[in-house]
């Protein structure tokens, strides 16, 4: 449970900050569109207008019947044929003119609002997925306490696959070995190879079982498997293991994995067509998400060194 919270709480904190920052910008971004209560079909007169050649000069008849001029500001310069027609929204209380901004679908203002809303939705979805996944783990593991109790020989395996290191229990059953990935617990390093442990559930027929090592529940981080896990394996003996690590060591070990976060931040900034703020937000959310994912898989802070 502590490892699950260790991964979830930073993600929730980062997500809450990002949602707050994005939501705070929405009223200001929406304000011009809220004032643009009138619509008209406009005709393009010229392109390449300020700012930065993103302006498109249009003319249209206002709701009072008088000819008006306005400027659509695009998110980026786009070649638009003079004479093309486009539906615009405008503020009828503001006098028309080449410097008066009017709005159309896909322009800079509309895109800004859409990007902010999309950002809030993406962050909310990430938080929802993480929270639901964590809650399901807690609920399903607690239900295992009601399963029938048996005793089996178990051996702890430390499996390194890429940057992720996990503890597995190899369980000896009357139908051969079964392998169970588990969340890290301070009792695991003291488990001798082949030592008998209490097990709640049937490792032959159940997808999940609950081992009890030295009187402490060791929650499974995944389903039972009938094939050995892939990766570099080692079965450490109690004498080979350093003194029990704590949550601080867990953080230090798994922070190495978040080096991919800037790459994910760049991808988000590219898709969002944003700048430094998009990159920073995407990097922060990615780092917290990767760290949560490693905790969800049961990352082991006491991985023996390669050797």
Structure explained in plain terms:
With about 300 residues, the protein is an alpha+beta fold. It folds into 3 domains: about 1-25 and about 110-140 and about 250-295; about 35-100, OB fold (Dihydrolipoamide Acetyltransferase, E2P) (Beta Barrel); about 145-245. About 35% of the residues lie in helices and about 25% in strands. It has helices at about 1-35, 110-145, 245-255, 260-270, 275-295; strands at about 40-50, 55-60, 65-75, 85-90, 100, 150-160, 165-175, 175-180, 195-200, 210-215, 215, 230-235. The strands form 2 sheets. Strands 6, 7, 8, 9, 10, 11 and 12 form a 7-stranded antiparallel β-sheet that branches. A 5-stranded mixed β-sheet has the order 4-1-2-3-5, with no helix packed on it. Strand 6 and strand 7 form a beta hairpin. The longest helix has about 35 residues, at about 110-145. The two termini are about 30 Å apart. The model has no long low-confidence stretch (mean pLDDT about 85).
Class from secondary-structure proportions = alpha+beta
Strand content of the residues, in percent? 25-35%
Which whole number gives the mean pLDDT?
Answer: 86
Number of domains as seen in the coordinates? 3
How many strands, what sense, and barrel or not for the largest sheet? 7 strands, antiparallel
Total beta strand runs = 12
Q: How would you sum up the global shape? A: rod-shaped
Helix % is: 25-40%
Q: What is the CA-CA span between the terminal residues?
A: 31 Å
Count every helix, treating DSSP H or I runs of 4 or more residues as helices.
5
Low-confidence blocks of residues: none
Rg from alpha-carbon coordinates: 29 Å
Secondary-structure element sequence? HEEEEEHEEEEEEEHHH
């Amino acid at each position: 449970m502590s490892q699950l919270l260790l991964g979830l709480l930073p993600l929730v904190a980062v997500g809450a900050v990002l949602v707050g920052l994005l939501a705070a910008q929405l009223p200001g971004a929406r304000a011009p569109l809220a004032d643009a209560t009138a619509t008209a079909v406009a005709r393009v007169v010229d392109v390449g207008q300020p700012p930065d050649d993103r302006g498109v000069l249009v003319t249209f008849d206002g709701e009072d019947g008088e000819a008006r001029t306005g400027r659509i500001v695009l998110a980026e310069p786009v070649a638009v044929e003079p004479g093309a027609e486009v539906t615009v929204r405008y503020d009828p209380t503001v006098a028309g003119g080449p410097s008066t901004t009017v709005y159309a679908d896909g322009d800079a203002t509309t895109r800004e609002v859409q990007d902010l809303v999309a950002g809030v939705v993406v962050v909310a979805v990430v938080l929802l997925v993480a929270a639901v996944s964590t809650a399901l783990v807690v609920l399903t593991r607690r239900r295992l306490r009601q399963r029938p109790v048996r005793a089996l020989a178990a051996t702890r395996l430390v499996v390194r696959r890429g940057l992720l290191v996990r503890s597995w229990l190899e369980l000896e059953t009357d139908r051969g070995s079964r392998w169970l990935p588990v969340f890290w617990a301070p009792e695991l390093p003291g488990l001798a190879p082949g030592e008998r442990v209490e097990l709640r559930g049937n490792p032959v027929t159940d997808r999940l079982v609950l081992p009890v090592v030295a009187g402490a529940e060791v929650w499974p981080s995944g389903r039972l498997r009938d094939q050995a896990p892939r990766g570099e394996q080692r079965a450490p003996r109690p004498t080979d293991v350093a003194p029990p690590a704590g949550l601080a060591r867990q953080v230090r070990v798994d922070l190495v994995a978040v080096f991919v976060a800037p790459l994910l931040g760049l991808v988000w900034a590219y898709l969002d067509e944003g700048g430094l703020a998009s990159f920073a937000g995407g990097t922060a959310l990615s780092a917290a998400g990767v760290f949560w994912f490693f905790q969800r898989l049961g990352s082991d802070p006491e991985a023996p060194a390669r050797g």
